[in-house]
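Data availability excerpt. The first of two example chains:
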Amino acid sequence: IGLYAFEEPLVLRVDTINQIYNLESEEIHPAPAHIRQPFVEGVVEAKDSYLIIISIQKLVAELLN
């Protein structure tokens, strides 16, 4: 997706991936009102729990500010 920090490419190292979900946009619900972090895009109901969807671009921007 082309993430950059201060004009340099940003590389993220991932230790493990437990599950990959293929989601349709209508499956993603808005984040609850009590979650105020700008990088949280929404939530998804998955089996018996909920998953939080975050924007990596917004998270990195938040961390760099």
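And the second chain:
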Amino acid sequence: TLKGKNKNRDVLYEEVGHFVSDNSDILFALWDGEYTGQKGGTSEIVKYHMTKKSYVLYHLLVLRNGD
């Protein structure tokens, strides 16, 4: 759940990302394509979403500032 004021921000991002993925057949990711391993980060949510065999991901490559 998203309840609890003491939760770490990254954990909250992860929970929201999982919720969105779990409730979407298609996910659009604006992402630089780098796996950071950061909890709740785009790469982790993309990885989570792709574990679902019937789900689709569209990836739009975006560059980080300075790239």
